[in-house]
Design goal:
By secondary structure, this protein is mostly beta strands. Helices cover 6% and strands 40% of the residues. It binds CU-O-CU linkage.
Length: 536
């Protein structure tokens, strides 16, 4: 293993998309930002220099950060932000992880443009558990607003209503044909007949789950969230914000151009956005005049296409890559996730109320001092370690709206002793409307042992849990009007954020954090903070 150095200059850059320009927050002037390359067990030193007027922090999404929560990145959770003119070097080791992850800003809505891929290769000499691809390509999906995204969310918070949806989706920073702007040539993937391509697909969009598809070709899915899966073939993958999916694409045609689409998946009654981003797979030797073979993306509400993909995911669970699912449980948790309405006298557009979101009816309030240092240095009054194990009352979660839609507010954490095993039921609610929620847990991978529609039934549903080869990941889609059950072992001490990766829901408060205590043994406690750790 080795130490790799990167430098991230956070700078403004004028960027033109959809035939209109805006000053944009970027890393090193690039959109999307640079890809980080490393190998399993390498150490990364990434020096972030803030040259913009905003506070900044960067999260390394899916990196476990074993004992190094100081480098995790969510502002006011593990660190105070890097203020304008300041520098912070993120220092962490990629312990036992290989695959595709990604990085993004973790403050305000800056991740709209501040993101990039992380490619972690296996250790030197260790092969993939699937046939070696001839080439590897990173495909990062995103969303673009013509206007300033900080204004978009601030306006929404003022009114109490939902923010404007984006103007286009993006494939590697390009919308393609979607908006008919001649300068927006779509991303072109050049291929040769007979060769195999490993596509490392990341969904960096703020608020959209996406279908991803290539006309006339099948994918072989081999990995999600940097964990190998049992390979399977499928023509459309679905990928939620925060998730990553590696697929093999064999260039089985002799020539031609084939359309690639990234289109929204939204099976909720509040669906609004329907822009499809396009790219092309382009065979070498194809005449430029030859037509593009088109494909129709699935309709926005194609739930069966999504579940067909999700239900096919299984851990590889080989001797070398076993699925270490906890089989005894110390903490049984049941969290409802959903929306609510709180009074807001100043919200004119919202008729005196504002949309909020919550977990177990708690709308999380961001502290002024970051939680990890508050915990480490015993600073009192920043949080309370009393996050509820269950919702405050039982109701028909997935049914229609309940009468009292108001939530409580608080900075409440759930405390776990080192090495405790956790089973967490995530239940979507129909308060306001049911919706898919991609829930991301920092500092951990977890196993998805069950999923279903309607209300979770604690008597019946556990009989159908998969404890043998459940998929292991860091971001899980809770189905609209349904539930998932995850399990993990709390073997990484620190303060770990858990939130919906639809940025608008995070902003509204669909978030909480786990406080995992130090263990008593060697290498079971948080390392001390680095010298340049930002102060609030
Ligand atoms: Cu990728 Cu807390 O997020």
């Amino acid at each position: 293993s080795m130490v790799r150095h990167y430098k991230f200059n956070v700078v403004m850059k004028n960027i033109t998309r959809l035939c209109s320009s805006k000053p944009t927050v970027t890393v090193n002037g690039r959109y999307p930002g640079p890809t980080i390359y490393a190998r399993e067990d390498d150490t990364l030193l990434i020096k972030v220099v803030n040259h913009v007027k905003y506070n900044v922090s960067i999260h390394w999404h899916g990196v476990r950060q074993v004992r190094t929560g100081w480098a995790d990145g969510p502002a006011y959770i593990t660190q105070c932000p890097i203020q304008p003119g300041q520098v912070y070097t993120y220092n962490y080791t990629l312990t036992g992880q290989r695959g595709t992850l990604w990085w993004h800003a973790h403050i305000l809505w800056l991740r709209a443009t501040v993101y990039g891929a992380i490619v972690i290769l296996p250790k030197r000499g260790v092969p993939y558990p699937f046939p070696k691809p001839d080439h590897e390509k990173v495909i990062v999906l995103g969303e673009w607003w013509k206007s300033d995204t900080e204004n978009v969310i601030n306006e929404a918070l003022k009114s109490g209503l939902a923010p404007n949806v984006s103007d286009a989706h993006m494939i590697n920073g390009r919308p393609g044909l979607a908006k008919n702007c001649p300068s927006d040539q779509g991303y072109k993937l050049s291929v040769k007949n007979g060769k195999t391509y490993l596509l490392r697909v990341v969904n960096a969009a703020l608020n959209e789950e996406l279908f991803f598809k290539v006309a006339g070709h099948l994918f072989t899915v081999v990995e999600v969230d940097a964990v190998y899966v049992k390979p399977f073939k499928i023509d459309t993958i679905v990928i939620a914000p925060g998730q990553t999916t590696n697929v093999l694409l064999t260039a089985s045609k002799s020539t031609g151009k084939y359309l690639v689409t990234a289109s929204p998946f939204m099976d909720s009654p509040i669906a609004v956005d329907n822009v499809t981003a396009t790219a092309t797979v382009h065979y070498s030797g194809t005449l430029s005049s030859s037509p593009t073979i088109l494909t129709l993306p699935p309709p926005q509400n194609a739930t069966s296409v999504a579940t067909n993909f999700t239900n096919s995911l299984r851990s590889l669970n080989s001797k070398k890559y076993p699925a270490l699912v906890p089989t005894t449980i110390d903490h049984h948790l049941f969290f409802t996730v959903g929306l609510g309405l709180n009074p807001c006298p100043t919200c004119k557009a919202g008729n005196g109320s504002r949309v909020v979101a919550s977990i177990n009816n708690v709308t999380f309030v961001m502290p002024k001092i970051a939680l990890l240092p508050a915990h480490y240095f015993n600073i009192s009054g920043v949080f309370t370690p009393d996050f509820p194990k269950n919702p405050p009352h039982v109701f028909n979660y997935s049914g229609g709206s309940v009468t009292n839609m108001a939530t409580e507010t608080g900075t409440r954490l759930y405390k776990l002793p080192y090495n405790a095993t956790v089973q967490l039921v995530l239940q979507d609610t129909g308060v306001i409307a049911p919706e898919n929620h991609p829930i991301h847990l920092h500092g951990y991978n977890f196993f998805e042992v069950g999923r279903g529609l309607g209300n979770f039934n604690p008597k019946k549903d556990p009989n159908n849990f998969n404890l043998v080869d459940p998929v292991e990941r860091n971001t899980i889609g809770v189905p609209s009007g349904g539930w998932v059950v995850i399990r993990f072992r709390a073997d990484n001490p620190g303060v770990w954020f858990m939130h919906c990766h639809l940025e608008v829901h995070t902003t509204w408060g669909l978030k909480m954090a786990f406080l995992v205590e130090n263990g008593k043994g060697p290498n079971q406690s948080i390392l001390p903070p680095p010298k340049d750790f930002p102060k609030c």
